[in-house]
Design brief:
Structural class: mainly beta
Radius of gyration: 30 Å
Shape: globular
Number of helices: 6
Number of strands: 48
Distance between the termini: 66 Å
Strand content: over 45%
Length: 877
């Protein structure tokens, strides 16, 4: 407590000395650029030398956004816009008195490195979404779809367009040619679009805007200027067809006697992706037999708490336009749509008799998927997704050569429908979502649910020039299945209805369905002046179930939260800006139990030299966990304090880094965790960059869950067995990138991962609600516990008779993932990939140190190698 009090005094002192610098409240008039139809067509070479550009006037007078908002930038920028029947043309002149210092960093598409210009086009003019086209001084292109009024930027948007850039003695120039088929707009004699241009001078970390947007103003897209003069445009329906072919060779350690593990496999695959413009606003995306061979592997992770780990979606079909389907209803990762459920690994393993071998598919085959999405001019956002995965069979071969098949995953249909409607001059919206998962079980898979349905509604309302807001959502779920499947659902860790001391939940073995609810309501101030605050409540009922096509980590929670922030936004000689905040939350279950309170103070300072620090501290008190004993009674957690500090250097330099440290300590020294982070990035040339990241965590916990033993004679009771764990985790990630041109690149990714856990002081639960740790557990003494053949044997009452036993919980998991990808975008939208991927995983000796274990996995352990060639061609109209 003394430590926390000292830091609190520090933050109060800092606030008193820096002073309250209120930003002036100015009404910024909308700027208007009036374009004209071109007379000649310019050549898009980046030079802006064609006479064609003389058809329109320059516009300039950019205003700095960061670091010193409202002031003239270091160097001005100007632009021109013109159009014809099919394209929008944009010319950029970025002045710079030191052109030799312009950062021309090459990268892959969407690299967003070096000096750059972003053109922001709100062609819907809904003041919430925009298409963003980026050109760097090196001629690298990038695109994003901005939504939620600029709070979400999605770089999965991948249109066909044309750009180039050149550096000269005045600075640098860029030209863009954007097909109207890649934009969305309605019918009107004259189009009026939201429009803005953002320039970044990388070495200064300076941003400037054509349409000034004060830092106190909430929103970004809504505050853009306007583009006028687009007359008699005919909406262009998008039509793109992209077939692909994949050749794949897998090489792996041969398994003696296993006919399915011969050491080498070859496959030839083909498929098709297509985009069809139903209207100019709405697009139908189709995929047949999609291939995700070049997708980067998931990072290594170990879940000591038993809950499911969230991994981000990386498959292009599902990533693109995900913002339309997104329905994150609570905090964390909880979402009604988690696309990684589609094409997941089979639920079952093959059942083998002695002498049999099985070839089990790693993932469910996606037979086909269709996605209908877009946004209409009158404010409707619409998304519909339909996907079917196949019956999956394991092929089982006996030693005499005979074969049989065993189903391991049923055919499943996934359906998602999402809609939102803007109104009240785009200051409000209301929306809804519906998902359905239906499995064709055919009398098999009694352990699986036959169907799962979810629905939700969300809303947001902003007022007083979007300074204040109220938003929220509510959801419900309904799952169906056999009594066996629904009983198993009730007993999963996220539900835990079998908790022995719970009075508000219990397992009902006769149920064939579950119905639950959840939601979130929040109100606050998000703009204007220096103060920001919000508060609200989140709930997840005990029967809520989303994991058929959503993501839900735990249930039975009601969380109250409140946040208060103060911003210093006027730069001084020391800092660019400061953000300090206080957060508070409390957690209840549906039985009315208070399960904890947490307080946190945090601050971020961006310094005038482009360095920054991020630090915080907090305290968790009165903490209880209904899930800790995994079906056992409610468990009392020790009061815990935590702190963290991160230092970030200037990332505009050739070498930049982040150093971080987090610490967690509990009362009575029950739990302790130290985590160290080192992230580095080095770009010695414009074409080559590398990053090397290291994360090391060292955890000890005297009460790490191990297992339970039921029906023992001692006290005729269940024993919940815990132990003191020393868990060390080391992750290193290396990325190398070499760009020959903006369209040709070579990338390497490598990540060794190890997590090692050693248990000592094994113990059992005495009183789960005891005030002291010594009241809650009893450590086995030498007369009670013995160890032989990797099994612990317990004679709890020391009468010479074994009461129960359990396996050695020690572990040391090691994983290596690498890939080398050569990419050539030989024409816009069409690519050739050459991929080599190498991976392995296994167990190391617990007694070995981390470095030796990783070294053995990288250099000595047998690995799986995949060589892949993927060719795509994009037909576009």
């Amino acid at each position: 407590m003394k430590f926390l009090f000292t830091f609190l005094i520090f933050f109060i002192f800092l606030g008193a000395n820096v002073g309250a610098q209120e930003m002036p409240e100015n009404i910024i008039p909308k700027r208007i650029y009036t374009t004209k139809r071109l007379i000649k067509v310019p050549v898009i070479d980046g030079a802006i030398l064609d006479d064609a550009w003389n058809a329109v006037e320059w516009s300039s007078d950019f205003t700095e956004k960061d670091p010193d908002e409202g002031t003239p930038p270091a160097y001005q920028t100007k632009f021109k816009v013109m159009y014809d029947a099919k394209y929008l043309y944009i010319a950029i002149r970025a002045f710079d008195a030191e052109p030799e210092l312009i950062q021309q960093r090459l990268s892959r598409r969407d690299g967003f490195q070096g000096d750059r210009v972003n053109v922001i086009i709100d062609s819907y003019h809904d003041q919430r979404t925009a298409f963003v086209f980026t050109t760097t001084a090196a001629g690298v292109k990038g695109e994003e779809l901005a939504s939620q009024n600029g709070s979400n930027w999605d770089d999965s948007y991948n249109p066909i367009w044309y750009t180039n850039a050149k550096v000269d003695d005045k600075g640098w120039t860029a030209e863009m040619k954007i097909p109207f088929s890649q934009l969305r707009f309605g019918k009107a004699e004259e189009q009026i679009w939201g429009f803005n241009v953002n320039r970044t001078i990388f070495r200064f970390q300076e941003r400037s805007l054509w349409q000034r947007i004060p830092n106190t103003q909430t929103g970004f897209i809504s505050e853009a200027g306007e583009l006028h003069g687009l007359k008699n445009l005919v909406p262009q329906k998008q039509l793109e067809i992209q077939p692909f072919t994949v050749l794949q060779q897998d090489i792996y350690p041969k398994e003696i006697g296993n006919p399915f593990k011969t050491g080498s496999d070859f496959s030839l695959n083909a498929g098709l992706d297509a985009k069809i413009g139903i209207t100019n606003d709405l697009t139908l995306d189709l995929t047949i037999n999609p291939d995700f061979g070049q997708v980067e592997a998931d990072p290594g992770a170990i879940a000591l708490d038993g809950f499911q780990i969230f991994f981000r979606e990386q498959r292009p079909f599902f990533v693109e336009n995900f913002n339309i389907f997104d329905f994150e209803f609570a905090n964390g990762r909880d979402n009604l749509f988690y696309s990684r459920r589609i094409g997941r690994n089979p639920h079952r393993y093959a059942t083998l008799n002695p002498g049999e071998f099985a070839d089990v598919p790693q993932n469910s085959t996606i037979l086909g998927a269709a996605k209908f999405s877009g946004k209409t001019r009158n404010g409707w956002s619409i998304g519909v997704l339909e996907s079917v995965t196949a019956n999956e069979y394991a092929t089982i071969r006996q030693t005499d050569g005979t074969e049989r098949e065993e189903i391991v995953e049923p055919m499943t249909n996934y359906f998602v429908a999402r809609a939102q409607k803007d109104f009240n001059d785009r200051n409000s919206f209301i929306g809804g979502i519906f998902t359905a998962t239906n499995r064709n079980l055919n009398g098999n898979f009694n352990e699986m649910r036959t169907a799962g349905y979810t629905a939700g509604a969300d809303f947001q309302h902003n007022w007083k020039d979007r300074e204040y807001y109220i938003e929220g959502n509510t959801i419900f779920s309904h799952v169906l299945g056999s009594t066996e499947a629904i009983t198993a659902t009730q007993q999963t860790l996220r539900h835990n209805f079998q908790r022995t001391d719970a009075t508000h939940v219990s397992v009902d073995e006769n149920k064939t369905s579950l119905t639950g609810t959840g939601g979130r309501v929040e109100i606050g101030k998000n703009g204007g002046g220096n103060w920001r605050y919000n508060g609200g409540v989140i709930w997840r009922s005990p029967e809520l179930e989303l994991n058929d096509v959503g993501f839900l980590r735990r249930t039975d929670e009601i969380i109250q939260f409140g946040n208060l922030r103060y911003l210093w936004q006027v730069p001084t000689d020391i800092y660019r800006n400061i953000n300090l905040s206080l957060e508070q939350s409390s957690d209840y279950d549906f039985g009315g139990n208070l399960n904890g309170m947490q307080f946190e103070a945090q601050g971020r300072i961006s310094y005038i030299n482009n360095w920054s620090t991020n630090s915080g501290f907090g305290l968790s008190i009165n903490s209880y966990d209904n899930f800790f004993l995994r079906g056992g009674p409610r468990w009392r957690m020790p009061d815990t304090s935590f702190l963290y500090f991160f230092l970030n250097s200037d990332n505009s330099k050739l070498f930049s880094f982040t150093l971080g440290y987090t610490n967690r300590r509990s009362s009575e020294n029950v739990v302790g965790r130290d985590r160290f982070v080192i992230r580095t990035n080095y770009q010695p040339t414009d074409a080559f960059s590398m990053s090397f990241n290291i994360e090391y965590a060292n955890l000890f916990d005297r009460t790490q869950y191990v297992t339970e033993s039921s029906g023992i004679e001692v006290n005729n009771d269940t024993r919940y067995i815990l132990g003191r764990i020393k868990n060390q985790t080391l992750t290193t990630t290396l990325r190398l990138n070499y760009s020959f041109t903006p369209d040709i690149s070579l990338q390497f990714y490598g990540q060794p991962f190890i997590s090692k856990g050693q248990y000592t002081d094994l113990n059992y639960v005495l009183n789960p609600l005891g005030e002291s740790i010594n009241d809650r557990i009893s450590v086995y003494n030498e007369q009670q516990i013995s160890f032989e053949n990797d099994v612990y044997t317990i004679d709890e009452n020391t009468n010479g008779i074994t009461d129960y036993s359990f396996s050695n919980p020690d572990f040391s998991f090691v994983q290596l993932q690498t890939n080398l990808v050569a990419r050539w975008e030989y024409i816009p939208g069409s690519e050739l990939f050459l991929v080599w991927a190498r991976g392995s995983s296994g167990s190391a000796e617990v007694s070995d140190d981390l470095v030796d274990s990783v070294s053995d996995q990288v250099f000595r352990a047998p690995a799986n190698d995949t060589f892949l060639v993927k060719f795509t061609y994009r037909f576009a109209r």
